[in-house]
Amino acid sequence: MNKLLWKRVLCASGMAVLLLAFKILDFGFPDKASGYLAYVICELVYFGWFAPFVLNLNDNKGTGNLFIGEGIYYKGILVYTICSLVIVGGTWIGLFSFKLALVLALASLVLLGMYIYLSFSSAEHIYAVKESQDALTSNLAELKRAVSSLTASLDAYERNDDVRHEVDNLCSNLRYLSPSKDPEARNLEIEMLTMIKDLGNAGDDDTILRQIARVNKMFKQRKMIR
């Protein structure tokens, strides 16, 4: 059995224990309806705390899930638990009638639903920000990988010291580039990437040096864009 299945078995076992407890033990509620309501509330509270461990709410975008929403879900289930304790306790001592307890229980569920909605919204926002950052840094990351591959290819072929020095400088310069939302910056990054990839197919050292000079010129233009 995998871990998720074990967690679900444990959760179901706990819910079964709660059911047996309410069936066997006399908790002294004013009437059966109030006892049933208290049982349902307890089950919901129990499952609410277990939900992050037994539900797989990851989506295909890798955004995480409901439970990463900046702790909003956990705040919601904590508030719901407190409300539920007040409702069950008030019903048990006769402070709340069954009808009032039912209304309060439904209101608590609505409140929990609001927290769940906010948690989903927060998770979507986290993904949107992450996706935006990934889009900004993807070209820069690919540029660095291309230069690393170029350095490796130089090791496989004999190149003069000037070529190696210029490639090392290019690799060092790329560290100082920061992500930018400017379309011109992205266009320059794409052009630089294409030229760096072409360097691996360049023939003589002089051709490589000329192309690196063009890439360095683009680098200076790109560096001016924030």
Could you explain how this protein is built, in words?
The chain is mainly alpha-helical. The protein is 77% helix and 0% strand. The chain contains 7 helices and no strands. The longest helix is centred in the middle third of the chain and has 59 residues, at 98-156. It starts with a helix and ends with a helix. Residues 59-64 have low confidence and may be disordered.
Features of this protein?
226 residues, mainly alpha
Taken in chain order, the helices and strands follow as: HHHHHHH
Stretches with pLDDT under 50, minimum 5 residues: 59-64
Helix content: over 70%
Count of DSSP helices? Answer: 7
The average pLDDT value, as a whole number, equals 80
Count of beta strands: 0
Computed structural class: mainly alpha
How would a textbook summarize the main sheet? none
Q: Which range does the strand content fall in?
A: under 5%
